[in-house]
Amino acid sequence: IAEEGSMTWYCRKIRESDFVLVICSPGHRQRHDTADPDVIHDDNLALMSNACSSDAIIQLIGEEVGLAKARGEDLSKYMAAVFKHCKETDIPTELRLVSHYTLPQDLPLLFSHLHGVALYRPGVYLKINNITEEGFTTVPTGAALQLAIQEAGMMLSEKQQQTEDSSYCDRVDV
Fold first, then answer.
1. Residue 8 phi/psi, 5° resolution?
2. Environment class of residue 141 by beta-carbon count within 10 Å: exposed (0-12), middle (13-18) or buried (19+)?
3. Where are the strands (E) in the chain, listed by range?
4. Which residues form the SEFIR domain (predicted)?
5. Scanning 39, 77, 120, 150, which has its CA 20 to 30 A from the CA of 133?
6. 60-69 mean pLDDT
7. Terminal alpha carbon distance of the chain
């Protein structure tokens, strides 16, 4: 990366990849909704740098998606996913043209997309162990993912509750 520069490296990797899966979150959308160049939301410069990098990378992917669409190319290389505690609106506008998945419930569909395997055909249902919403937790990485999803959901709920409480207090105090 240091040799060719991060953005050049990302551009090359995006073009060379068979698939590009972007995991989206409310935090990314929120940065755009409350964007104010004079306000720094985080004291940690490394985190701010990463946030700017992810914005730039999403822009790059969005440009590639737009070019592929304009050329009439298949967009199946590009995908976006959110976890079950997120919303479809957490997916950046640049990625609205690509396939969307909600994880973990759409794991079989994502598997099908990545491997080009039809899960359903007339009279046939392909069952693949450890990729169902219930079965993926039977492997260590799936269990770790499930725990991370649950913890993120709890944090989102707490933040939402704090925001609602703060909003209520503001209305009462005024």
1. -65, -40
2. exposed
3. 20-23, 78-83, 99-103, 120-121, 124-125
4. 1-112
5. 77
6. 95
7. 53
Quick one: 15 exposed, middle or buried, by C-beta within 10 A (0-12, 13-18, 19+)?
exposed
Residue 72: which pLDDT band, with cuts at 50, 70 and 90? very high
Query: Residue length, the chain?
Result: 174
3-class secondary structure, 140: helix
Adjacent-strand bridge partners of 100: 80
Closest CA to 24 of 76, 88, 77: 88
Lowest average pLDDT, out of 2-16, 34-48, 59-73, 154-168, goes to 34-48
Taking the CA atoms of residue 66, residue 69, residue 70 and residue 72 in that order, the dihedral angle to the nearest 10 degrees is 160
Output the six-digit token pair for 7. Answer: 């953005």
pTM, two decimals, is 0.73
Predicted pLDDT at 51: 56
